[in-house]
C-alpha cells in the first residue's frame, strides 16, 4: 500500500493563466497561480529564465502598506522596485509575488501588530508574539512550486533573508547564490531593520 505525501508538490500551486505586463522596467509576462488554500499569487517573468543556467529571482512577500501605500515603516516598496529594475536590466528573471502579507499573519493582523508596536514599544517580533502569532509564519513551498512550474529550479536569489534561502532549498529549489537587495532605509524603518538583523539574522551588509 502506498500513502499520499502530506503536501504533494503538484497541489501546492496551480497555474491559472498568463498575459503581457508592460512596466517601466520592461515587459514581463504575468502568470496567475492559485494555491491549495485558494490564495492567489503571481509570477512576473522576463525573458526565458527556464533556459538560463541560474536566472535572477526575487521572492517578494506581500506588503500592501509598503508595496502600494508608500509606507516608510518597512523597506518593502523600494525592494520591490529595486528587484524589478534589476531583472529589467538583466533582461531575464522572475519575480514571485507571494500573498503572505504580514509575514503570513495577514493585513489586518499586521495592522494590529503595528498598533502594539506603537502603543507598547514592542519590536516586530514581540508584537507578533503578543498577539499569539509566530514571529514569521511564512512558507516558501508555494513559491517553490510556482518556480518549478515555470521551469526555474536553479537560481540566484535577491534577498537579505537567510531563512528564505533555506525555505526554498528545503522545497527543492537550488539557490546557487544569494544577492543582497538593500533599498529604502530611512529614519522610520531603522529600528525595524536592526530588529530583523538581530532576531531573524537578516544580512544588511553588501557582501
Ligand atoms: N507581522 C508583521 N509583518 C511585517 C511587519 N513589517 C513588515 N512585515 C511583513 O514582512 C514581510 C516582508 O518581510 P521582510 O522581513 O521585510 O523581508 P523578507 O521578505 O523576509 O526578506 P528580503 O528578501 O530580504 O526582503 C511582508 O509580508 C510585510 O508585510 C511587522 O511589523 N509585523
Ligand atoms: Zn513592508
Automatic annotation (TrEMBL):
UniProt-listed Gene3D superfamilies: GTP cyclohydrolase II (3.40.50.10990)
Claim: Kinase is one of the keywords in the record: no
GO cellular component: cytosol
Cofactor note: Binds 1 zinc ion per subunit.
Binding positions (GTP): 58-62, 79, 101-103, 124, 159, 164
Superkingdom, taxonomy of origin: Bacteria
Stated role: Catalyzes the conversion of GTP to 2,5-diamino-6-ribosylamino-4(3H)-pyrimidinone 5'-phosphate (DARP), formate and pyrophosphate.
NCBIfam families xref list: PRK00393.1, ribA
Protein known as: GTP cyclohydrolase-2
Annotated source species: Spiribacter salinus
Amino acid at each position: 500500500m502506498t500513502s499520499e505525501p502530506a503536501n504533494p508538490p503538484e497541489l501546492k500551486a496551480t497555474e491559472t493563466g498568463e498575459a503581457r505586463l508592460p512596466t517601466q522596467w520592461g515587459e514581463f509576462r504575468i502568470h496567475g497561480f492559485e494555491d491549495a488554500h485558494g490564495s492567489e499569487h503571481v509570477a512576473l517573468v522576463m525573458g526565458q529564465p527556464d533556459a538560463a543556467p541560474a536566472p535572477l529571482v526575487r521572492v517578494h512577500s506581500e506588503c500592501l502598506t509598503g508595496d502600494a501605500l508608500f509606507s516608510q515603516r518597512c523597506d518593502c516598496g523600494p525592494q520591490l522596485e529595486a528587484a524589478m529594475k534589476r531583472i529589467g536590466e538583466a533582461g531575464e528573471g522572475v519575480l514571485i509575488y507571494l500573498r503572505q502579507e504580514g509575514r503570513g499573519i495577514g493585513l489586518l493582523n499586521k495592522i494590529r501588530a503595528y498598533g502594539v508596536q506603537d502603543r507598547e514599544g514592542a519590536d516586530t517580533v514581540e508584537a507578533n508574539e503578543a498577539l499569539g502569532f509566530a514571529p514569521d509564519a511564512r512558507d516558501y513551498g508555494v513559491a517553490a512550486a510556482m518556480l518549478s512550474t515555470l521551469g526555474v529550479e536553479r537560481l540566484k536569489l535577491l534577498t537579505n533573508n537567510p531563512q528564505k534561502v533555506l525555505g526554498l532549498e528545503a522545497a527543492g529549489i537550488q539557490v546557487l547564490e544569494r544577492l543582497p537587495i538593500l533599498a529604502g532605509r530611512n529614519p522610520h524603518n531603522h529600528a525595524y531593520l536592526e530588529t530583523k538583523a538581530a532576531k531573524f539574522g537578516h544580512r544588511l551588509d553588501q557582501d
